[in-house]
Structures are given as structure tokens and as C-alpha cells.
Design a protein that fits this description.
The chain has 504 residues and is mostly helical. The chain has helices at 4-31, 38-56, 59-72, 80-95, 100-123, 126-147, 153-161, 167-189, 206-220, 256-274, 291-305, 309-322, 332-339, 356-372, 380-392, 418-437, 441-446, 451-460, 470-478, 485-499, and strands spanning 227-231, 237-241, 244-249. α2 packs antiparallel against α5.
Length: 504
């Protein structure tokens, strides 16, 4: 007779496979579904989301979970079974609070919203998106009320993406960062020693951009036997299992760097998903810990590695071969400085490493007010524009480059944005620890060898799946908690070195 834990695993596997099917439909919708397929797809997504929810919160799942918990009670806290059941219990307790009808409405609305957002952004027409955005805000408020909270309604939504994260914690971390980051941005962007980027002001073949990006992805360790790259309106990573992890990007012949760094960013996400424990597929542990940890992987690869001197000492000659005659005479040092030029910009995904978090602060403040009820949908564009003037000194000329630029709200993902900054903070701490353990990493990267770094991340982060909480993982690796200081030290040292004129 099978054990209670084995019976529970079989039940959970059914739920996981159904959710993977939903994810495949989502990937198809964003990459190759015809425009007229939206109505049918919204019904498909709604029905499957209902079924997945129903199976998860069923009495049978509750009974099997309780049986497994009784069977394993008293075991080692961090054992596979105990960790698996904690993750399952959290998922069950969270989802059982949400009515099936709300799940269906959310799935149906987000599917429609995605198509409306794509069209509205193309036409730079916030008014066309506003009605369904209002619906999504109301649905998220309703979801937050179902989940419950003690201080801020926004806490309930943060918890979906970053378990146990509170609005007050985000406010504290962001406030500490702002106190140093805002003056640093003013200092750097006001410097007369800005890197030369004129050589980037030309057209670069998108086919060659794609070919170069594929080389970088392979060198990072992305396994194309278990993945693929496609194009979409907004770059993203989708993981069905560690055996099938897909990424997308978008290309612009007038911008060499945008697709490249989004490719590296999504590659970082994909490496995490491909590194999840293969022997635990379709269990609660074959999942990333949180979006903050996920973003730490993407931001580490994109910025700390992809915008580093060692990286470009190796890859610039390869890049030049893809664009014959276009980058002649440019040295690795010149290119390194160019890719790290800091200038306040309108688009979050194209912003430099120094100003990026200011974009996140803006979105966090707006989301918090929308969910709390102190800001109405119609007021988003003027508030958005005013915050850009305040934080970045620039004003969006239209909605497409303003409040319509991100896909997250169309997906109903309120509470997601803060995880980018949480990920940035953690990325610095992880890389510092990796260098402690393997000081040779920069020299290896200069040779195009990123295997040691990936192996370290596989061992310390990826292979655990969701065995640990965010706080437990950070403590396990660093001995403490997520901090602002390591990241700010990294930024200030890097950019002051690039922008401070040499002593005569």
C-alpha cells in the first residue's frame, strides 16, 4: 500500500500538469495566436483555471494533505517531504480562500486585457485600456480581501509573488535606497564625463542581433534541448517544467542593446527554472522560491555579468564579427563604458542599472494607491507623468512611453514590481558570496567561461526549488537578511569609477 505522502504527490501532480497546460496556452497567446483567437482563448483559460483551482481546494486534496502531514510529523524540518508539505500547505491555504468564480473572472479578464493592452499601447491610447484596467484593479482588490491582510490591502498581493513580504518592509527598503540613490543619480547623470555612445547610433540587423544573443545564451548554460527563444510584445520567460523552459524577446534595429540585455535577463530566469530539481517535477518543491529570488538571477546575469568589463573583453570581438565594419575601432573598455552610460529614460526595460530602481519606486507607489483606493484609474497618466518628473526629471510624451509600457497590469499582476528591486538587492549579495567562494569567476568570464558561476548558483539556489523560504535561503547563503548596502556599494563604486574624471 502506498504511503500517504506518495498518494498526495499523485494528487498534486494532476494539479501541476493542468497548470502547465494553462501556461502553454498563455505562451501561445503571447507568441503566435491569431488576433481573432482572443475570445475563445479567454474561455479556454477561464475553464482550465477553474478546474485547477477546484482540484487544488477540493476536499480530497485537503484530506490527502492532512494525511501526509500526520505521516511525516516530527521529521527533519528541511527534509524533502517536510519542505514539500509546507509549500503545499501554503498554496492550499492561500487558494482555498479565493472563490472559484473569482478565479474564472480573473482568467477571462486578463486574457482579454492582454489583447486590449497590445492594441492600446500600439496606438498610445490609455483611454482604450482604462475600462478593463479598472476591472482588473477591482478584481485584485476583491482577491486581496479574500486572502486577508492586517495592515495594507496591498500586503495580500505582495504575498502572492513574494511570500511574507509586507508593504512596510518595501517602504523601509525603498526609503533607505532613495536616500542614497537619488543624489547618486543626480551626481552621475550631471557629470561632464559621460561615456561616448555615438557609435551605437546606427541600424543593426535584427537577424544578427538574434544570432549573437543565441551565442551568449548557450555560453551562459541555457539548454536549448529543454528550451527555445521566440518573439513577443514584451520579453518574458515561461516554465512548464525544468524540461521545457521558454524565453522571448523583441528586437529593434535602431537599438543594439535592448534585445541583447533582455535576452540575458530572460536567460537568467530560464537558468533558474532549468536548474530546479528534476527528481521533484510535478511536486510543490519543483518551483522557484519567489519572484524576488527569480529576479535576483535575471538581474545578476543581465547587469553584474552582462554589463561587466570581463564580459565585454570576451564578447566584443564576437559581436564585431556579427556586424562587420560597424564597430571597428571600438575597444572593450569603450564598449563597457557605453553599455553602462546612465541617463534617465522613459522605458523601464531599457533603463540603465543606476536609474532602474527609480522606475520600480514609481510603479510601487502607484500600485499601492490603486489597490488602497486613494487613486482612480483615470488619474494614472497624470500621476505617472508627475512622478517621472520628480524621480527622473523627464516627462513621458505619450501613454505608450508612459503608463502603458508594461504588460504586468494587463496580466493582473499587482504586487509584482517590487520584486525587481528585491531581486537587485539580493543579486549583489549572491555575487559577493560567489566571489568569496570562487575568486576566479571574473577571470573565467573574460575567457567566455561562465560554468563556475552557474554551478555555484545551481548548488546554492536552483537545486533547492522551494525547499526554503526567501528569508531562509538568504540566511543560508549570506548568514543574514536582504540588505541595501551591498547593492548600493556596488552601484556607487561602479558608476563613480566610470564617471569621475581622472586626477591630473
Amino acid at each position: 500500500m502506498p504511503s500517504a505522502i506518495e498518494v498526495f504527490k499523485k494528487q498534486w501532480a494532476r494539479i501541476s500538469i493542468l497548470e502547465q497546460t494553462i501556461a502553454i496556452l498563455g505562451w501561445d497567446m503571447e507568441t503566435c495566436m491569431p488576433d481573432e483567437g482572443v475570445a475563445a482563448r479567454s474561455e479556454q483559460m477561464a475553464l482550465l483555471s477553474e478546474l485547477a483551482h477546484r482540484w487544488l481546494v477540493s476536499g480530497e486534496t485537503a484530506r490527502l494533505l492532512e494525511d501526509a502531514e500526520r505521516e511525516t510529523r516530527g521529521g527533519e524540518y528541511f527534509s524533502i517531504d517536510a519542505s514539500m508539505l509546507r509549500a503545499a500547505r501554503r498554496a492550499y491555504d492561500q487558494r482555498v480562500k479565493i472563490p472559484e468564480e473569482l478565479v474564472s473572472r480573473m482568467a477571462r479578464t486578463t486574457t482579454k486585457a492582454n489583447s486590449i493592452w497590445i492594441d492600446a499601447r500600439a496606438k498610445s491610447d490609455f483611454g482604450a485600456f482604462a475600462p478593463i484596467l479598472t476591472e482588473l484593479i477591482e478584481l485584485n482588490r476583491e482577491q486581496a480581501d479574500c486572502l486577508g491582510y492586517t495592515e495594507h490591502r496591498y500586503d495580500a498581493l505582495l504575498d502572492i509573488f513574494e511570500p511574507d513580504l509586507k508593504t512596510t518592509t518595501v517602504e523601509k527598503l525603498f526609503s533607505e535606497m532613495k536616500g542614497e540613490l537619488v543624489p547618486l543619480v543626480k551626481e552621475i547623470t550631471g557629470s561632464v564625463k559621460a561615456p561616448d555612445t555615438g557609435f551605437l547610433d546606427q541600424k543593426f540587423s535584427t537577424a544578427a542581433q538574434e544570432a549573437f544573443g543565441l551565442i551568449v545564451l548557450k555560453d551562459m548554460g541555457y539548454d536549448f534541448r529543454r528550451g527555445r527563444q521566440d518573439r513577443s510584445a514584451h520579453p518574458f520567460t515561461t516554465s512548464f517544467t525544468p524540461y521545457d523552459v521558454r524565453i522571448t524577446t523583441r528586437y529593434d534595429e535602431n537599438d543594439l542593446l535592448s534585445a541583447l540585455f533582455s535576452t540575458i535577463h530572460e536567460g537568467g530566469h530560464a537558468l533558474y527554472d532549468q536548474g530546479l530539481p528534476l527528481d521533484l517535477v510535478n511536486t510543490p518543491l519543483c518551483q522557484p522560491i519567489s519572484l524576488g529570488v527569480h529576479e535576483s538571477q535575471s538581474r545578476l546575469w543581465e547587469n553584474i555579468i552582462g554589463r561587466s568589463r570581463p564580459f565585454w573583453r570576451h564578447y566584443l570581438p564576437i559581436l564585431k564579427r556579427h556586424f562587420p565594419g560597424q564597430l571597428d575601432g571600438i575597444s572593450p573598455e569603450q564598449f563597457y563604458r557605453a553599455v553602462n552610460k546612465s541617463k534617465p529614460g522613459l522605458i523601464r526595460v531599457e533603463s540603465d542599472e543606476l536609474t532602474y530602481n527609480l522606475h520600480i519606486f514609481i510603479r510601487f507607489e502607484i500600485e499601492k494607491e490603486l489597490i488602497g483606493g486613494s487613486l482612480e484609474t483615470k488619474d494614472i497618466p497624470p500621476v505617472w507623468n508627475e512622478k517621472y518628473r520628480e524621480y527622473l526629471g523627464i516627462t513621458p510624451p505619450d501613454d505608450a512611453r508612459g503608463c502603458l509600457q508594461d504588460i504586468h497590469w494587463a496580466h493582473g499582476s499587482f504586487g509584482y514590481f517590487p520584486t525587481y528591486t528585491i531581486g537587485n538587492l539580493l543579486s549583489a549579495q549572491l555575487y559577493n558570496k560567489a566571489l568569496e567562494d570562487h575568486p576566479s569567476i571574473p577571470d573565467e568570464i573574460e575567457q567566455g567561461n561562465m560554468r563556475t558561476l552557474l554551478a555555484w548558483l545551481r548548488d546554492r539556489v536552483h537545486r533547492h526549488g522551494s525547499r526554503y523560504t526567501f528569508a531562509e535561503l538568504v540566511k543560508e547563503i549570506t548568514g543574514g537578511e536582504v540588505q541595501v548596502r551591498p547593492f548600493m556599494n556596488y552601484l556607487s563604486e561602479k558608476f563613480r569609477e566610470i564617471y569621475t574624471p581622472p586626477t591630473p
